[in-house]
Amino acid sequence: MMRRILLINPNSSGKTTEMMARIAAAGLPDDVQIVGATAQNSPAMITTAVELAASADEVVEIGVREAAGFAGIIVGAYGDPGLKTLQDHVIIPVVGICEASMLEASEAGRRFGVATVTPDLVGSIEDAAQRLNLSHLFSGVRLTPGDPLQLAADPDALQAALADAVRACLKKDRAEAVIIGGGPLGQAAVALAPLFDAPIVAPIPAAVRRLLGLMAMEAGPSA
Description:
By secondary structure, the chain is an alpha/beta fold. It is built from ten helices and eight strands.
């Protein structure tokens, strides 16, 4: 029987939703299907804490409305808007790409950092590490220079700038693993992973792995 996972993109870009769904699908077994849902009331790319917080209500609305047809939900913005509320309102497992990537990056007590493009979301990332009781392992955020929207529109420049930020996390902050922090950065995260000896955590695959684990626990020993 085919099981379905709902990936909610809090950014209002259908193109980004399609990209994230492709990345998520690559990590799924044959009997699990990913379905993307795109928010309509947010910017195409969330870049500020205000925008992130404002997107939460629609994430919850989409998740509650669609939950009955799915075995699990992924919240696909770094900052996990609406995650806790949605978890409280549905009976299926719900994971966020920020939470999942931080838990994976910090496994075995690894020191981890975040490379990203959005300076106005640094506080939200720091808050997430604290909320997960991982502040003692969190080496900080390294940012790409320039306007995040312009950079995100140029895939080659984005990957190069994020690679520099990853190197800063590893060399200057002594991180042992680095997360590429952002749903719209998903393709760059996957491309960067094989270029470094240290673990480079791509948040979307991390969320898929976490959700599949939770779904297996829900299904019980016979799964």
